[in-house]
Amino acid sequence: MEPAHEFGEETDSAGDNGAAKVQDRLQKRNQARIDDVERRKEEKESQSVAEEKLEYFSSTFKREQMCIEDLLSGCSGADQGVVNQRLEEATIKIVQLQKFLNDSVLFLTQYELRQAQSALQKLQGSLAEIREKALPKKKFAFRARTKVADKVSEQETDSAPPYCTPPADLGEVVRGSSSKLFGFSNMDNQYLTKTSEEINKRDVLLSHLSNCKVRLYGSPSTLHLKHIDKCEILCGPVATSVFIDDCRNSTLSFPCQQLRTHSTTDTQVYLHVTSRAIIEDCHGVSFAPFSWSYPTLEEDFNVSGLNKDSNNWNQVDDFYWLAAGTPSPNWTTIPEADRKTNWDP
Amino acid sequence: MGLLTILKKMKQKEREMRLLMLGLDNAGKTTILKKFNGEDISTISPTLGFNIQTLEHRGFKLNMWDVGGQKSLRSYWRNYFESTDGLVWVVDSADRLRLQDCKQELSTLLLEERLAGATLLVFANKQDLPGALSKEAIREELALDDIKSHHWCIIDCSAVTGENLLSGVDWLLDDIAARIFTAD
Ligand SMILES: Nc1nc2c(ncn2[C@@H]2O[C@H](COP(=O)(O)OP(=O)(O)O)[C@@H](O)[C@H]2O)c(=O)[nH]1
Ligand SMILES: [Mg+2]
Q: Which residues are noted in the entry as GTP-binding (chain B) (predicted)?
């Protein structure tokens, strides 16, 4: 507020008219001040509502979680009737807790969500385990309990990957589209290359390769690797994602925006990734920074639009390892001394 | 204020819709969501769990849920079915390799009782890629014409250029609104 300035202006204007103007201005200013106070109050309120919601969520979730844990831990040594009752109660409570979490998702942060999801997963795990141990085989079951058992077996199938679709039939895929799929398939012990004219801005597929060395000089849109064994595959900057499925004993290197790795074992990835790499159902995957180079790499980086200065090669999310805090045992970084530096064919 | 009151309040709000966005991983769901919201799409990471965005569009409040499509997460999809008004099924039109997988997942999804009544929008995404299949080809590959249980529509789009994203969502809103808000 600058009242001095306000009155200074007044002396320039004449008589009543000037005073009215000032009056008007003062009033407006006052209104603005009131609005401002009102707005801040609202902000503060909605802030505290948000905090309140969060607090309510956390404490309720914790309480329910502990209650379920108590129910479960009270099962050991108890007699059959008590165990049945406790398991049934725990089952229902877990379902309710999941629903509570789903309903609260709008105001939770990613971190809180993850925490809660993994807590729920743990509860479901121990419930299944205790049920397995504590309950006699189905033929002895009471009627009432069979219901619960059904519910749980449904949950158990839930936690396994639901649809293990067989690998896509290549014949099917190529049907009507062979002119548009670029790559190599069904080769053993070969040295294979492609140039940027062949692959730029295209989806490239390498499948069913073993003992091959592959060099892709260029910038594909997406790179798919499927059923790869004992290969060395190097590729220029991939504009979007690299998709790996069922790859073994291989060495890979490329820059990309995202890396999605599935069902892969004992494979080294020399990686430049501008967002994130994830692994799912993998073991023994190790990572190091991208270090391959070829004459037109710079150009291809430009084609891909990838940021050359941003590399998150060592930030890997494991979808099979949601426990926060403990690192996934399924991937490692390659120690500097062990990294490959010579990429000559 | 207790949680129940808050939830009730949220649900009472008129012209509010819940849209669930599903599809295989890498289809472009998160990119569509961010593009729609005017955010940077160059730094999107694979979705671990889900993203939720609340958008205002044409006076509607849209709660859009983007749930990760990784195999290990698909079994959790059903946790998000409750009170879904619209289902957005996103297809990577260039990913010929997984079209059968995609078809399978979609048809399983449409059997879900809790999704009965939800309007289905299929986005044939990534049309900016030279290798992308046309929406007609995808319509055929996914056998969309066999769907009798839901109102559906397929729209070709690109999350990168933003092409047709709005017209898709507009169709979805119109269909849902006709169903929900004109009942009385
Ligand atoms: N060319 C192109 N790439 C896209 C498009 N939409 C998404 N992408 C890319 O596809 C990859 C996967 O996208 P994302 O949104 O994470 O997929 P989600 O798993 O379905 O959430 C990313 O690298 C995106 O940049 C599109 O319309 N065109
Ligand atoms: Mg995503």
A: 23-30, 69, 125-128
